[in-house]
TrEMBL record:
Ligase is among the record's keywords: no
Protein's GO biological process: fatty acid beta-oxidation
Domain of life: Bacteria
Biological function: Could possibly oxidize fatty acids using specific components.
The organism of origin for this protein: Nocardia wallacei
PROSITE patterns, sorted: ENOYL_COA_HYDRATASE (PS00166)
Pfam family, one: ECH_1
Protein name (Swiss-Prot/TrEMBL): Enoyl-CoA hydratase
PANTHER family in UniProt: ENOYL-COA HYDRATASE, MITOCHONDRIAL, ENOYL-COA HYDRATASE-RELATED
Catalytic activity of the protein: a 4-saturated-(3S)-3-hydroxyacyl-CoA = a (3E)-enoyl-CoA + H2O; a (3S)-3-hydroxyacyl-CoA = a (2E)-enoyl-CoA + H2O
Alphabetized UniProt keyword annotations: Fatty acid metabolism, Lipid metabolism
GO molecular function, one term: enoyl-CoA hydratase activity
């Protein structure tokens, strides 16, 4: 099942399928879409898995084994690609909290987020080639945007699996935390991004034109939240 927690502007989506190592089944796709719908209005979204073994272990092969035609395979790929696209397009920052291994399709879900924070004992890899298939949920393109085309081809083409430290060095993971500090750390980071400025900064980084960036700044400048913060700073200076 997919769970949603709303916490003061932060939406936390948890994939909780321990019997399948949080693998993605057709029903999981439906539930993820419903959770994204229900998270509308949140300033930031965090996606994680239940437990410590797996973030998402890929597609649920037992459930997806019924897909035997090219048309069925394409329909499934388009469906989950759409879910990942919706995560990537969420208005506020999206954090993937890698509580466990992110393999195959799980790595594709992870790179749909803006930021990846990993526990130091996890592994991540685009290892679909071990099943004689390739990434199809938008992950290959997003991987190339993160680490460069050549490195993306090397990673996904060979199916190499990286530990957290190597993934951070490659630019695939943004922050690695000790396991003992992981839950507290990713939640604190996600909460810090649940702000109006962070959402506007995301749009600018995505290529919004300068006029939109300036307009966003001006709107934030006149907001009560800005002046309350400015007053606190000015009062401290006295």
């Amino acid at each position: 099942m997919v769970e949603l927690e709303l916490d003061d502007g932060l939406a936390v989506v948890t994939i909780n399928r321990p019997h399948a190592r949080n693998a993605i089944a057709p029903e999981t796709m439906d539930q993820l879409e419903q959770a994204i719908d229900a998270a509308a209005g949140a300033r930031a979204l965090a996606l994680t898995g239940a437990g410590e073994r797996a973030f998402v272990s890929g597609g649920d092969l037992k459930e997806l084994a019924a897909l035997r035609t090219e048309a069925q395979a394409a329909e499934m790929a388009w469906r989950m690609r759409g879910v990942c696209d919706r995560l990537a397009a969420f208005p506020g920052p999206v954090v993937a909290a890698l509580n466990g291994h992110a393999l195959g399709g799980g790595a594709e879900v992870a790179v749909a987020a803006d930021i990846r924070i990993a526990a130091d004992d996890i592994k991540i890899g685009f290892n679909q080639v071990s099943l004689a298939i390739m990434p199809a949920w938008g992950g290959a393109e997003r991987l190339a945007a993160l680490v460069g085309r050549g490195r993306a081809l090397l990673l996904a083409g060979s199916g190499v699996i990286l530990d957290a430290a190597a993934a951070e060095r490659a630019g695939l993971v943004d922050r690695v935390l000790p396991r003992a500090e992981f839950d507290r750390g990713w939640r604190a980071a996600a909460r810090s991004l649940a702000t109006a400025p962070a959402a506007d900064i995301k749009r600018v980084l995505a290529g919004a034109p300068p006029a939109e960036a300036v307009a966003a700044f001006a709107r934030l400048w006149v907001a009560e939240e800005h002046w309350a913060a400015a007053d606190r700073v000015m009062n401290r200076a006295k």
